[in-house]
Structure formats: structure tokens, C-alpha cells
Amino acid sequence: MEANREPRQEAFTGADRHTAWWQDAVVYVVYVRSFADSDGDGVGDLDGIRSRLGYLELLGVDALWLTPFYVSPMADGGYDVADPRAVDPVFGDLDTFDSLVRDAHAHGMRVIIDLVPNHTSDQHEWFVQACAAGAAGPERDRYIFRPGGGPDGQQPPNNWVSAFGGPAWSKISDGSAGNAGQWYLHLFAPEQPDLNWNNSEVREDFARTMRFWLDRGVDGFRIDVAHGMAKPPALEDMDPRAAGSADTSAYFDPRFDNDGVHDIHRHIRAVLDEYPGRMAIGEVWTFDEDRFSRYLAPDELHQAFNFLLSQAPFDSDAIQEAIYRSLDAAGRAGSLPAWTLASHDLSRQVTRYGGGEVGARRARAMALVQLALPGAVYLYNGEELGLPDVDLPPGSSADPMTRTRTDERGRDRARVPIPWEGTAPPYEFSTAEQAWLPMPADWSDRTVAAQLEDPDSVLSLYRSAIELRRTLLDSTDGTLEWSTAPTGCLAFRRAGGLVCVLNASGAPVPLPEGEVLLASTTVTDGTLPTDAAAWIR
To answer: Of 362, 535, 348, 383, nearest to 458 (Cα)?
Structure first.
């Protein structure tokens, strides 16, 4: 490859520091409702996951992350938890969960589960008690209740908005004559009241929940809204522009990333340290490197997502900048990033990178970039099949975003169930006539069965990349060295000599010298096509 553009930054060195299993793991994110249905009700469940562990072992992943499967009224897909120490009957029971953990371990895979510390369901017994107790009841101190604003208390206490749209406060009646009623905070749906982490009962109960699952053998936790939980005492107004920004560091936003959150993470870490070899990864939406690195202090989270790569367009400069900043942010704490390109909250890569054949090519290329990077990789179920977002029929989505944001198509577009085999929906996802979300009629060539034996399929690309990643990359060496590359391209080298090249320009480019180990598309005459990536040694 002709070198006509200097790399933006110097090499990142993370050598000989990272030996814990999670530092370079390939983790498969299982959206439980959409992975596999064992009982014919159209909804994925824990036994369904057990039945497909052989597939995940064949894919080569090191661990599973399960989205919430707890007792829930499902106002937000299970992230509104009514009982955090019980399995919702739609997914199974505790015996089923124990069997899943045991079977996953037998297949050589660890199990990470989602925990939701920022809020509960409005049907949690605590919130029911708080509403019944009245304004002076101590039960309300477990949540964030405040008197209303304005002369008659009929206005919200401040101008905070929900992450799902609309006000972040809802008013309840206290049942007494002349009482204006208090308001409770919910940074997400009204059915998800925020907990008050200054209350000792909240901290003690969360520790109890962690030990409950750790004692059952889970290997780690994904902490939902890990930049939340702590609220400033004054509850001052937010900058209105923050409501439309994913980056909490862009505008003044007291809803998230308050300094007090780090004391909460130290509390979480203290419990985890009682169980050697267990870990926690946090969902952290701040793009400020210094503030992000604080979450990775030695007594806080083991890992954190910062989402820079998933927010970058398919542009070599933007991708390189996202990689560099992610390495820098984690490196300030002596750690490595946790990379992700998709999740149950984000648009799928194929759609995000342009849709159709263009989006499909770019998604394949970015898979090779992601899997060549130092650190852990989190793959969202279905991306290894090249699934796009699905335009759902009106009224079919259960996402609360569709209730409060009329211009939103909702996150369920990226949650359509996995197609396993066959020529028509639901493609052996379920024995029901229809899955909980409608599946496209033209996915027969995207099923697992159709792709397993096809050497040119997206699934085969992922399987090969994961295997090569394990055999060629030293897990204890996090070094990445940027190389010069043509305009519109990027290239970096890992310890051991593996070079990853991405062509995001509008024309084919010559490859550097070496053996092409893997490419996202056919490579001929030493030339890498546009919208493609290759691994070379």
C-alpha cells in the first residue's frame, strides 16, 4: 500500500499489563427475548439460549452477556425490574437459569448478566409502598420525590427531560385534601422511577442482589446507565441542548456523570472483590477522556463502553479518531477499551453505514477493524449474520420511545429475532406462527443454517476472524501502532505483525506487502476494493 498520508497519532502501548479474562474477551450479547424460543410463545427464553450454546461455541465467543430476564411488567423490555432476584416466568425460572450457567461453563463460556441500579419498575414493592406511604413516609426516601414547582406546585421540580422524551418527572397524589402532591424522578420511562442512592437501604439491597447472582455462578455484570445513579443535591436545571446529545460532556447535564457516582461504583467493586475473577462493565455515555477514565479506577469498574466507535461514520479519519480517543481514555486508567459497534439500543451496522449492499460491505469491513483492536469486543446477536434494521409495521413496537417521540421508529428495529433456518418466518426461532416482533419474509439467505456452510458468508467471516484473533494476537500485549495509508484509508499494526487495513475511500487501493490472512471481500491483484478491510501478515 502506497504510504501518502501520515497516521494521525503515535502508537498506543498497552503491553504486558492485561491478563484478566475479560480484557481481550469476545463477548456475545444475547437479547434474551430475540435469541431463541423454547416453549412456543414467540418470545425468546433461557432454555432457548441453552439449546443454542453449541452454535455460540462454534462461533468462538468467550462469554455471553444476557439482557434482563428478571420479573418485570416489560414497560421497557425488562429494564423496568420489579424483582431483581427472580426470573420472569416468560423466560423460565431460577432452576433454568442455574442450568444455563452450568451449561455455558461446560461449553467454555462465561456468563455476564445485566444489572439495573439506576431505577426500578413502578410495580416494585418499594415504589408501591412509597406511593401508599404519603409525603412524609420514609419509604419515599428510597426514590427521588420532590414537591412541585410554581406557586401551586403543579409544575415539575426542574426542567429535566427523560432520555425517552418528555418530562423526567411525574406527579402523584398523596391522597390528602389540599395536598398538591409530590413528583418523582424518572430519567427514562414513567414506569421506571429513579432510586435514591443516598439511601442506605438502596445500597444494601443492591449488594444483596449482586451476591445473589454471584453465588449462582455468574462471572460478571453489565451495569446499565453506569454514569447515572448519583444526582446533585440541588437538582439544578439542565442545559436544554443536552436533551438531544448522546455525549453528557457536551453540555451542562446534571442528570448524568455526577462525581458522586464514583462512590457508588466503589461500593459495587467492593462486593465484586469478594469474588475473585468476577468483573463489571459499565454503560458510560461520556466522551470526555478524563471523566471517562475515572470509571476505570482500580477500585471501580473493570471495563466500560464509551461508544465512540459506534458513533463514528464510515470515514477513515473519524474511525481513526474514535479508536485513538478510546485507547487514550482507557489507557489513562491503565486499561483497554471494550469495543462495540451495535447493541439493543443502537441501529445495526448494515443500516447505519448506508443500508443495502453498501452498508453490508462496510459492516463486514468494520467487523475486521473491531476484531483486530486491542481490548475486549462485544458482538450484538445478529451482527454476525449481517442483519439490518427492520422497518416494523405501525403498532408492532413495544419500545417506550415510540410513545414519547413521535418521530422515532424505536429501538425494536434492531431487536427482531434471530433467523435460525428455513425459508419463511419465524425461521425456527419459535414454533409459534409469529415471533414477538415480525420477521422479514426475505431473510432465508440470512439464516444461520444458510450461512454456516457458505465460506463467503458474514457468519464465516466472523468465525474466521475470531479464530485468527485468538491464535495471532497476544492477549497480554495491547500495543497498536498506526501506519501510513492513502487518503480515505487507515492501517494499524498489532504486536506479532498483524496489520489491519481499511479502505473507506471511493476507489481501490494497493495493499501493503505480505500475506492476506483474511479480507471482508474478494481481493485480487494485490488491490483492496473500496468499503473493504483486510488482515495482512
So the answer is: 383
Nearest to 374 by CA among 322, 341, 342, 327: 327
Burial classification of residue 356, based on how many CB atoms lie within 10 Å of its CB (0-12 exposed, 13-18 middle, 19 or more buried): exposed
Single out the catalytic residue among 16, 274, 421, 467.
Answer: 274
pLDDT for the residue numbered 8: 46
Which one of 88, 224, 289, 531 is the catalytic residue?
A: 224
Contacts of residue 244, Cβ cutoff 8 Å, sequence gap at least 6: none
Span 206-235, average pLDDT: 98
pTM: 0.95
Distance CA 506, CA 486 (A): 11
CA distances from 214 to 210, 217, 221, 266, 280 (A): 6, 5, 9, 17, 12
Long-range (24+ apart) CB contacts under 8 A made by 513-518 are: 517/468, 517/472, 518/368, 518/461, 518/464, 518/465, 518/468
Average pLDDT over every residue of 310-316: 97
CA angle 493, 477, 295 (to 5 degrees): 105
Q: Is the pLDDT of residue 295 over 60?
A: yes
Q: Provide the pLDDT confidence category of residue 132 given band limits of 50, 70 and 90.
A: very high
The reported pLDDT for the residue numbered 13 is 53
Beta bridge partners of 536: 499, 516
Spatial separation of the C-alpha atoms in residues 362 and 353, rounded to whole Å: 6
What's the chain's average pLDDT? 93
In the residue annotation, 6 being an active-site residue is answered as no
Mean per-residue pLDDT for 422-446?
A: 98
| Segment (H or E) for 318 | helix 316-331
**Mean pLDDT, residues 332-343 taken together:** 96
User: Minimal CA–CA distance to 485: which of 445, 412, 534, 416?
Assistant: 534
pLDDT tens digits for range 42-59:
999 999 999 999 999 999
pLDDT in tens, 435-446: 999 999 999 999
Cell triple for 103: 451449561
Backbone CA torsion sign across 296, 249, 81, 129: positive
Partners of residue 29 on adjacent β-strands? 65, 380
The pLDDT value given to residue 404 = 63
Query: Is residue 463 helix, strand or coil?
Result: helix
- Mark whether 224 is an active-site residue: yes
Q: What is the 3-state secondary structure (H, E, C) of 76-140?
A: CCCCCCCEEEEECCCCCCHHHHHHHHHHHHHCCCEEEEEECCCECCCCCHHHHHHHHHCCCCHHH
Map residue 280 onto helix, strand or coil: strand
* Bridge partners for 524 per DSSP: 527
